[in-house]
């Protein structure tokens, strides 16, 4: 089974955003099945004990005391920042927020392949203090990689008047999927903007995968979404202060 068209992802995305989301039509179901049929080269294995990272905006405080020489009492003099406790570094099981790969209330563990990517993904401001947790995986994991065609534009394919070859069609669709997962999340995004990637993730989960990986658009590493919160455990926590934030801009030509 292959994709119906090189535009299959956009057809699927439109259908689940504007037509029907919970009971998928036949074409949407075919699209999901085609993902599984064409993904064999994208399967990755993460061994038990591998190191991954997860960051959270904010930190906890630890009070500092000094002994009053006259009364010999402990006097509170200051509070110093410390990392969040280990329990805070995982999402709450009963109140998960909306994400690129999960619906509200259904938690997933979002981690990254390096600490720079983990901290960049939470978009902290200059001078902010963030808590950074180092995790290790608790079992061997089978991951589906959505980063292979990241950054590849399908602009050239718009000039096709007929469907391209099966190989070109597959590459075009996977490019759209990969870029949809790595697209930066904005505060203005509505929850429906996540529908397509959430459904794909849930379908992948139902086919026995432990998680997905996709390229970060904010740093050099990759993001990994683990479907089971117990797939990784916290080894330790650190705090980091954001010392530099750099933006780049490109002009959009007016027509």
TrEMBL record:
SMART domains: RES. Pfam families: RES. Residues 83-241 form the RES domain. InterPro entries: RES_dom. It comes from the Bacteria. This is RES family NAD+ phosphorylase. The lineage of its organism: Bacteria, Pseudomonadati, Pseudomonadota, Gammaproteobacteria, Vibrionales.
